[in-house]
Amino acid sequence: xxxxxxxxxxxxxxxxxxxxxxxxxxxxxxxxxxxxxxxxxxxxxxxxxxxxxxxxxxxxxxxxxxxxxxxxxxxxxxxxxxxxxxxxxxxxxxxxxxxxxxxxxxxxxxxxxxxxxxxxxxxxxxxxxxxxxxxxxxxxxxxxxxxxxxxxxxxxxxxxxxxxxxxxxxxxxxxxxxxxxxxxxxxxxxxxxxxxxxxxxxxxxxxxxxxxxxxxxxxxx
Length: 221
Fold this sequence. Notes:
This protein has helices at 4-7, 13-31, 35-43, 46-68, 78-106, 119-143, 205-220; strands at residues 150-153, 157-161, 168-172, 176-182, 185-190, 197-201.
């Protein structure tokens, strides 16, 4: 369902996500109508297969692009990628929990005692969880492209608009570290606590100079 924004580029993302959530709820309710089949599936490890099958469409393109050294594609690709990764993790976790519950119900209990979990095991588990998060971030970085924003120069600073109802923020001129040109673009480099940079593409030298002059003049005010 997270692939719908890519399959329907002309439909607003909010409508697609609402439809996706509704579709997921309906699918989950339909699956629960046959709980015995679901129990058999998770006991046989079917949830692991489903989780892997869900994640592969998100991981394989990222791996291919990483080896090729290419970062292309629309920015909206990040939504289905993270959606697939999240869904795969959710399927695996839910299946693991259900497997334990089903086996508790079906099998004979021979011993039940309170114990303490090994700290070293917990450390390894937490480290794996952190590495998994880094892997998700790396895949998202490989598949994403620079976000398009709109810069508006004012006397007191820049208004950065990245779109959406909460996409505007104000950047005072004291937060701008340097304005420079390079190749076919003008770069506005910012200071901490948001050490990012904004690239204004321009293939005409005169236009680049005019942009730099305007930015630097406003910055001095």
